[in-house]
UniProtKB/TrEMBL annotation:
Entry-linked PANTHER family: FATTY ACYL-COA REDUCTASE CG8306-RELATED (PTHR11011:SF45), MALE STERILITY PROTEIN 2-RELATED (PTHR11011)
InterPro entries linked to this entry: FAR, FAR_C, FAR_NAD-bd, NAD(P)-bd_dom_sf
Tagged with keyword Lipid biosynthesis: yes
Pfam families: NAD_binding_4, Sterile
Function of the protein: Catalyzes the reduction of fatty acyl-CoA to fatty alcohols.
Similarity comment: Belongs to the fatty acyl-CoA reductase family.
Location of the Fatty acyl-CoA reductase C-terminal domain: 178-269
Name of the protein in its database record: Fatty acyl-CoA reductase
GO molecular function, one term: alcohol-forming long-chain fatty acyl-CoA reductase activity
Keywords noted in UniProt: Lipid biosynthesis, Lipid metabolism, Membrane, NADP, Oxidoreductase, Transmembrane, Transmembrane helix
Species in which this protein is naturally found: Bombus vosnesenskii
Keyword Isomerase: no
């Protein structure tokens, strides 16, 4: 079907089909849930609906992660210093759940629906609503990790903020990063190396555009089924083997675990002492660049006014 239409037509069709859905992933998951809800009422079936899934908190080991999600890519770009500003609001909740919590929820849900048959397909929202974590807190925690445990391939001093205003966001995206990126790419070309900074920035902008919907909106999920399941599981002596409650979550500690998991399992990096030296140099370059930018801006304003 797609072969019969050009790219613009497909994009228009996509917008019409998705409507209020942020992307095709969310849309297709909703379709799958509708099929289960309508066709599987007499079967021992339930829907476990996790929010954003992060690395493991404890099992099989802290920070275990196998795939690169949008949030993981955001961590990497911020850690490498490739993100100056992200469109979003600091007070918006980030609903993040460790993968081992999700697995425990799936196991317990399978047990529950097998023994307690209902003529409906129940939905178990596996979320962190009970212990809210906000995007602003997440950015602050990543920046802290990025400066205390810098990546070996940091490209610029990590400094990122969440900006709700579209126009301020555009200015902060362009001014502090694009101009230095152009200069670095020119320098790389002169050395005979392949330019990469502008490509990284473009990929980062695409990524941040895809997560904008989630940094600008928040949701409150019904947890009745999960709470009921947790109460029934706690009746058993070995209930401490599974984790179904996120209310005592230390998010700053979890972000540090997330960050180290990315370093170990995704980037395959061991910590090098030279990373701190590199970050120190980048810090002063960053400060000089900022002061130069402010000076140029003031000079332009002076020329315009006088």
């Amino acid at each position: 079907m797609c072969d019969q239409f050009d790219k613009n037509s497909i994009n228009l069709m996509e917008k019409e089909i998705l409507k209020t859905y942020p992307n095709t992933y969310a849309f297709s998951k909703n379709l799958a849930e509708q099929i289960l809800a309508s066709k599987c009422k007499d079967l021992p079936v339930a829907i476990v609906r996790p929010s954003i899934i992060g690395p493991s908190l404890e099992e099989p080991c802290p920070g275990w992660i196998e795939n690169i999600s949008a949030l993981t890519s955001t961590f990497v770009l911020i850690g490498r210093g490739c993100a100056t500003a992200i469109r979003g609001m600091r007070e918006v909740r980030l609903d993040l759940v460790p993968v081992d919590f999700v697995i425990d929820m799936i196991i317990c849900t399978a047990w529950h629906v097998t023994l307690h048959r209902d003529h409906e397909v129940k939905v178990y929202n596996c979320t962190s609503n009970a212990c809210p974590f906000k995007w602003g807190q997440m950015i602050d925690a990543i920046l802290k990790c990025s400066t205390e445990m810098p990546l070996n391939d940091t490209l610029w001093y990590p400094d990122c903020s969440l900006i709700a205003n579209r126009y301020i966001h555009r200015v902060l995206c362009v001014t502090p990063r694009v101009l230095p990126a152009v200069v670095i790419d020119i320098f790389l070309r002169l050395r005979g190396s392949k330019p990469m900074m502008m490509k990284l920035l473009k990929n980062g902008n695409k990524l941040f555009s895809s997560v904008k919907y989630f940094t600008m909106h928040e949701w409150t999920f019904q947890k009745d089924n999960c709470s009921d399941l947790a109460r029934k599981v706690k009746m058993f002596n070995d209930s401490d083997m599974v984790k179904l409650d996120l209310r005592a979550m230390n998010w700053e500690k979890y972000v540090a675990i997330y960050y180290m998991g990315i370093r170990k399992f995704i980037l395959k990096q061991d910590f090098k002492s030279t990373a701190r030296q590199r970050l120190s140099r980048l810090y002063w370059i960053h400060q000089i660049t900022k002061m130069s930018g402010i000076t140029i801006l003031l000079w332009i304003i002076y020329c315009i006014v006088y």
